[in-house]
Amino acid sequence: MLGLIDGWLARLGIPGPRPVDRAVDVGLVLAVAVATSVPFIGAAPGEATALGLLLNLATVIPLLWRRRAPFAVMVIVGAAATEVSAYHRPGQNLQYAGLVAIYTVASLGRKRWQRLGVLVAILVTFPPASLLLKHNDLDEFMFTLLLPLAAFLLGSLERTRREHAETLRERAEQLERERVAEAARAAAEERARVARDMDDILAHAVSLMVVQAEAGPVVVRRDPERAEQAFEAIADAGRDAMTQLRRLLGVLKADETQRLPQPTLDELPELVGGTASLEVTGERRPVPPDTEIAVYRIVQEALTNTVKHARAQHVAVRLEWSADELEVSIVDDGQGQQATVAGGHGLVGIRERAAACGGTAEAGPRPGGGFEVRARLPCPEGVR
Questions:
Q1: Which residues of the chain have pLDDT under 70?
Q2: Using CA atoms, how far apart are residues 82 and 80, in angstroms rounded to an integer?
Q3: What pLDDT is stored for residue 88 in this prediction?
Q4: Per-residue model confidence (pLDDT) at position 345
Q5: Dihedrals φ, ψ of 136, to 5°?
Q6: SS3 146
Q7: What is the DSSP string of 240-298?
Q8: Which residues have CB under 8 Å from 293's CB, separation 6+?
Q9: Looking at residue 201, what is its pLDDT?
Q10: What is the predicted pLDDT for the residue at 317?
Q11: Cβ 334 vs Cβ 311: under 8 Å
Q12: What pLDDT, on the 0 to 100 scale, is given for residue 90?
């Protein structure tokens, strides 16, 4: 049953939780199930029924999917909790599952209107239910109202903490990139200064060689000994110039040994990692190295834009091989209109990468929401 629902949600494009999150949810469901079973233990003969058990289970089991569909789980748990209270065989003094569902929507709800709807539902339904239906006194009323509000507040605080931590992480990454860029700029400026110094040294050495070489034919007939000294001076100047030139090239190419091999299609799964899903259709075949690099960089840039600008919950990367081309698409469910504005140079770079391989690329918001980057790169069979 669990696998069937997971498969159905996956077909709808809703990603599954990480194994550690799944383990936490299973433990949470077991804890809520134990708390929910307390009224059954102390129930009088005939008070606990099979229907009552099913209704109580209906408030607990959906929590297994709280991360994948927070609002839908909240609706299901709320409906089941209402039935439990109405049937009351046995009832629940405290709806633990409902509190967990409220917390989850506040913490993980994807849409602002969903979180606002849950808050409004708490304020609208709990006071009448407490005062008119259950005839609670003031202490009971405050307990009934404040407990779900506290769950919503804790979930909202967790969301704020998580977003703050993400902001700090992005800021740290940005500062690190700026530090590396500043170090590279300083190194480039220093290499430029060294090159200017070397230019003066080499110009002097070459000028000396030219003067000695022009004087050589004259003195070789009149004074062979001086001619020999002139040729030795030319050789010494040449050797000194070569030494200085090697030093200059060593400085200008100091970072050549630090270059990593160019990426290939085999490294795409590692690039995608846990941030997106990767699907490959069709029969893969050899392609030119520049095409492999272009595919890798296009996916890398699209994922970077998604993480930085789109605030997407799910990203799907797809490679589709056909007879004469490779189609690459990166689709997310984020804020497409913001990605269009913020894409900037990244999207221009994607188009340039594709054009350099003889292909095309386009990007923009999707009609149903989200953002899509699509590139078509020619790779006819038999071409390497």
A1: 1-16, 124, 126-142, 190-191, 193-202, 204-205, 208, 212, 214-216, 218-221, 226-227, 230, 240, 243-261, 308-311, 335-346, 381-384
A2: 5
A3: 82
A4: 56
A5: -75, 150
A6: helix
A7: HHHHHHHHHHHHHTTTGGGPPPPP-GGGHHHHHTTTSEEEEES------HHHHHHHHHH
A8: 262, 263, 264
A9: 61
A10: 93
A11: yes
A12: 85
Paired with 371 in beta bridges are 332, 365
How far is the C-alpha of 272 from the C-alpha of 311, rounded, in Å?
16
> What backbone torsions phi and psi does residue 50 show, to the nearest 5 degrees?
-65, -40
pLDDT of 340 reads: 44
Which token pair is 248? 């200059």
Dig out the tokens for 188 from the structure: 């480039």
b/e sequence 322-347, b meaning 16+ C-beta within 10 Å? eeebbbbbbbbbbbbeebbeebeebb
Helix (H) or strand (E) holding 307: none
Q: Of 105, 127, 130, 131, which Cα lies nearest the Cα of 118?
A: 105
Dihedral angle computed from the Cα positions of residues 143, 147, 148 and 154, in that order, rounded to the nearest 10 degrees: 160
Instruction: Output the pLDDT for position 4.
Output: 62
Q: For residue 327, list its beta bridge partners.
A: 320, 376
Question: What are the percentages of helix, strand and coil residues in the chain, rounded to 5?
Answer: 70, 10, 20
Q: Within 13 Å and on the Cβ side, how many CA atoms surround 57?
A: 6
Asked if the peptide bond before residue 288 counts as cis, ω within 30 degrees of 0, the response is: no
**Looking up tokens 């099979």, which residue turns up?**
50
Tell me the C-alpha distance between 327 and 349, whole Å. 17
